[in-house]
């Protein structure tokens, strides 16, 4: 039976009145004047509340696995028009499904996937109502993110949702606001869906927040020096790397830039911990 939804928002909470009771649940008035449009609120979705005819309930309206318009008092992880961090539960021929917080997982159609989705991983997804009146999700969230008013130096947390052509990370701050981490501001291998933490470095003219993920130079140098010493200790006190090594080989082994590597080596030499020659570096 097709339900008239002209006065009800699908994929959102609606304040609706209980008009009748059945063995399997309650029926809510869809505000059309036609009892055939009443929406079922199953017993399993009332969250233990004591309900009576005439009560008004704030119910979330969606379509169940049988494509029936149905109500629930359970709170989903997101509503239509929101971006949510959801876990992919399965991949199928028609698309992927993500845990939506309700009995029915939400579909991410293949055409709405800008990148591969792995089962068990979480991603930022935008929730929308498709042309058939069903709820669905898309990985194409960029146009739904907002600008954030924030000051330099403030701490932020976010989720990686893409990469720019130059390698910079696209980050959704709090899952809602546009942020970016420049390629030379990180050396860790990030994947889409990873969480990040940092501080605001600058606000660009287009409103995007520039984020610094790295520790301060002093902290980073100290950590890198520990990593170098550990590497030497595990390799009989010698290594082929020195301040003449290629940036590529340094990044591959130590996950840092050549400049920071040279600074760290210089500090260790001043501390008389290491020595260098044309063949590499030795632990004293």
Automatic annotation (TrEMBL):
InterPro entries on file: CvfB_fam, CvfB_S1_st, CvfB_WH, NA-bd_OB-fold, S1_domain, WH-like_DNA-bd_sf
Pfam families on file: S1_2 (PF13509), WHD_CvfB (PF17783)
Domain S1 motif: 9-74, 79-140, 151-214
SMART domains named among the record's database cross-references: S1
Gene Ontology MF, one: nucleic acid binding
Family assignment from sequence similarity: Belongs to the CvfB family.
The protein's name in its UniProt record: S1 motif domain-containing protein
Annotated source species: Clostridium cavendishii DSM 21758
């Amino acid at each position: 039976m097709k339900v008239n939804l002209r006065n009800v928002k699908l994929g959102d909470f609606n304040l609706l009145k209980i008009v009748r009771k059945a063995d399997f649940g309650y029926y809510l008035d869809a505000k059309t004047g036609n009892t055939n449009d009443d929406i079922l609120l199953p017993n399993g979705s009332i969250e233990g509340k004591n309900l009576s005819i005439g009560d008004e309930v704030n119910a979330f309206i969606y379509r169940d696995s049988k494509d029936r318009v149905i109500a629930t008092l359970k709170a989903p992880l997101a509503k239509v028009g929101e971006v949510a961090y959801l876990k992919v539960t399965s991949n199928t021929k028609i698309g992927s499904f993500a845990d939506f917080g309700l009995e029915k997982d939400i579909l991410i159609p293949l055409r709405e996937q800008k990148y591969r989705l792995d089962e068990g991983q979480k991603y930022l997804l935008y929730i929308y109502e498709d042309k058939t009146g069903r709820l669905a999700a898309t990985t194409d969230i960029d146009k739904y993110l907002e600008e954030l008013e924030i000051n330099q130096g403030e701490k932020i947390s976010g989720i990686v949702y893409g990469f720019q052509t130059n390698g910079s990370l696209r980050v959704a701050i709090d899952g809602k606001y546009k942020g970016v981490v420049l390629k030379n501001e990180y050396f860790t291998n990030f994947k889409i869906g990873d969480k990040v933490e940092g501080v605001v470095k600058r606000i660009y003219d287009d409103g995007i927040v520039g984020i610094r993920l790295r520790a301060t130079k002093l902290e980073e140098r100290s950590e890198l020096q520990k990593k170098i010493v550990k590497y030497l200790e595990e390799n009989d006190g010698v290594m082929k790397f020195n301040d003449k090594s290629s940036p590529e080989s340094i990044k591959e082994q130590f996950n840092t830039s050549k400049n920071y590597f040279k600074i760290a080596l210089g500090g260790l030499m001043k501390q008389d911990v290491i020595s260098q020659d044309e063949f590499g570096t030795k632990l004293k």
